[in-house]
Amino acid sequence: MKVIDQTLLEKVIVERPRHSHKGDYGRLLLLGGTYPYGGAIIMSAIAAVKSGAGLVTVGTDKENIPALHSHLPEAMAFSIKDKALLKEQLEKAEVILLGPGSRENVFGEELVNRVFYSLREEQILIVDGGALGILAKGHLPFPSSQLILTPHQREWERLSGIVLEHQNTETTSRALSAFPQGTILVEKGPATRIWQAGQSEYYQLQVGGPYQATGGMGDTLAGMIAGFAGQFHQVSLYERVVVATHLHSAIAQELAQENYLVLPTEISKELPKTMKKISQKGN
User: Fold this and answer.
1) So where are the chain's domains?
2) What is the pTM of this model?
3) Which residues bind AMP per the record (predicted)?
4) Which residues are documented as binding site for AMP?
5) Domain 6-280 is of which CATH architecture?
6) What are the strands of the beta sheet with 27-31, ordered from one edge?
7) Which residues participate in the annotated binding site for (6S)-NADPHX?
């Protein structure tokens, strides 16, 4: 097990060059939030923007757009059922987050199919929420893009077809081998672990707690991962995912010193300040 330390945080979160612009910090496309789960994609979008993503576009139910813009005018949005706009945005995106607030129904399956078959190798795909359940049905081959999955243990078991035992490295190794080489898995739980297919070592969080047990935590984490994936190109994608996952729980732990529970949107609110402190320490 590898430890997430201050050195790693400062390696990833660095000060921005003076002459950079929004195009340098990722073109993100977030897809989800179909009725009745509109809040999920809104929380993902807030987290992505607050983590520093350059351009964030959201495909969601048309009825969800006014609520999204009232919370986050910085994000662009379109109807997820507009096939022409979806095609256009899929072509432009560098990072795609698929699944927060999605349902495992016919439309959800069509959306996952459309995204998977449009992907290019250089694009980064994060599969979360309902899209994980659709992927676990086994009807689709894994895409050839850079792939990040964010399952709970049971979701990972459905995806790999292997029952996991927490301390059994052999079953974990077999479960990892079910995914393409280099696939990153964020195994969410009381002690979240971050794996990469083809690697035996992993990172395990030493922060976080039961104050995070509330709706929207996973959606916020997925948005943070997307935001980090689109920037910090001086380090590996794996390191970006590890640090985003750590900060999600580290900020919650800090907030829990004065709060019985921590809301996901409060984590996003604190994110820019926390990132600023880390970037200054690294100088």
Assistant:
1) 6-280
2) 0.97
3) 188-192, 218
4) 188-192, 218
5) 3-Layer(aba) Sandwich (3.40)
6) 76-79, 55-60, 27-31, 95-98, 124-127, 146-149, 184-187, 193-196, 203-204
7) 40, 101, 152, 219
